[in-house]
Amino acid sequence: MRIAVIGAGAIGCLVAGYLKQKGEEVTLVGRGPSVKAINDNGIIISGVRGNRSVRVSIAETLNYIPDLVILTTKTQDIDSALADSARLMHSSLLLTTQNGVQADKIAAKYLPPEKIVSSIVMFGATNFEPGKVVHNFEGSWIIGNFFNSHPTESLIALSLVLDKAFPTIISQDIQGMKYLKIFVNANNCLPAILGKSMQDVFSDLTVSRISIAIWKEAFEAFDKIGIDLVSLPGFPVENITKFTSMPSVHAAEIFSGLMRNLSKDPLYGSILQSIMRGKLSEIDYINGEFVRLGQEHNLQLPLNKILVEMVHEVEANRRFFSKEDLIQRTKELV
What is the pLDDT of residues 199-217, one digit of tens each? Predict the structure, then answer.
């Protein structure tokens, strides 16, 4: 299978490197600095599976017809990525990997829905330098049909390829799982606002209480709207129901302990990683998705709205907030 990975960030480099090491024919598509770094030194991977350098072909544009395209750009970059490459993908299978629930809908502007496979990445990686990635923690790779619930032969064949890199699961309800994954990612806004690692941010119990309030506000809205969440491997829906139903002080203590021990390497989350690389983040597709859904159903989610606005302020001004600023802006809602 000829595989093109479009997007040479943390996830793109990680999956390209691991699939290449397993004998797959892989080409990366990335921007100029990544092209130079990977051409010079290969993809340099460190973290939970040890250190390695993997030689992978890389170019700034897709220049051949692949069998599989793994799209690892941020959601806001899908339009530009596919506008440049869709003409070569008429016979390809496209795998989306983005957080949120909008990626497949955007991709469907360029490709038939039956050629699009949705996925959820449960493993974690960090990338601050072109061509260098830290694999922070293991996890599964969940795939499914976003536009219908029936598994196909192409899904089964795809799972056998992806399983070479990460344990791959076929979901019957990828939409419900992707909605729950937004909850998993929703607390990434706080490290992005403060400019610190997750371990540093969530060692503070007051900030951890804000995390619980983020979930509670969104979960109550989902319940009113009637959106069903579907459990993820290692993260059942009960995690949300339990955390949002117990006293917030107790919930914050448990949450803090979990987050501080998630990885031995500093974790920054995808939102902060984008900001530190000078790029716009995917906040509008995570906490912003909560706000958007609420607005569609005449529901207010003021805490998530404030946090989205604060992330946009950081993006615009390149200055992080203090913990005191964060607490002051959210104190009436926690």
Answer: 999 999 999 999 999 999 9
Asked whether 78 and 55 are in contact (CB, 8 A), the reply is no
Give the DSSP per-residue string, 217-257: HHHHHHHHHTPPP-PBTTB-HHHHHHHHHS-HHHHHHHHHH
CB burial of 111-120 (b: ≥16 within 10 Å; e: otherwise) equals beeebbbbbb
> For residues 24 and 166, is the Cβ–Cβ distance under 8 A?
no
Exposed/middle/buried for residue 26 (C-beta within 10 Å: 0-12, 13-18, 19+): buried
Six token digits for residue 224:
């009113």
Give the 3-state secondary structure of residue 38.
helix
pTM for the whole thing? 0.93
Report the C-alpha dihedral over residues 193, 199, 202, 204, rounded to 10 degrees: -100
| pLDDT tens, position by position, 76-133 | 999 999 998 999 999 999 999 999 999 999 999 999 999 999 999 999 999 989 999 9
| Domains of the chain, first to last | 2-172 (3.40.50.720), 182-333 (1.10.1040.10)
